[in-house]
Specification:
156 residues; 2 domains; 8 helices; mainly alpha
């Protein structure tokens, strides 16, 4: 199916067919090969009109839950949102516009975070505001050193 609504038909099957067509055995592997590509662009790569970013997000979360790597997923989502919202990295000068870009990225990050990790994300956000990273900082993936410090892996 192509050219349809993203939620028409069995979108999970469609999503994984597209991932396999591109030579990957999981959505996570597909996404990890593109560590800073925003979710909506990953979706567009998998299907111009019939895959949505939220479907990629849900698929990545489901795989992370199965692998007990939800914290890594949470870090990955911030790296992708940051590229989209704050592409030049942490600003050298904090003005209203840059504060808004950061607030949008961090707020969306919280919204996309599973309930089990929301408090940890709130603490990480507060730490970023209280002790900002150097100008130009932008996470280049889920293994970013600062993100791993703010959100270390604690999966069971």
């Amino acid at each position: 199916m192509s050219g349809g609504h993203p939620f028409q038909g069995n979108w999970v099957v469609r999503l994984y067919e597209r991932v396999r067509e591109r030579g990957y055995d999981s959505l996570t592997a597909f996404a990890e090969a593109r560590p800073t590509v925003p979710l909506h662009l990953l979706a567009k790569e998998l299907g111009k009109d019939d895959v949505a970013g939220v479907q990629v997000l849900r698929g990545l979360l489901a795989e992370a839950e199965r692998r007990k790597q939800v914290t890594r997923f949470v870090r990955d989502v911030l790296a992708r949102l940051w590229t989209q919202s704050v592409p030049d990295g942490w600003p050298a000068v904090m003005d209203d516009a840059s504060r808004g870009e950061i607030a949008m990225a961090l707020g969306t990050w919280t919204a996309y975070t599973p309930e089990t990790h929301k408090e940890r994300v709130r603490q990480a956000r507060a730490a970023l505001w209280a002790s900002p990273p150097p100008a130009g900082w932008r996470p280049l993936g889920s293994d970013d050193e600062l993100l791993r410090t703010l959100l270390p892996d604690e999966e069971a």
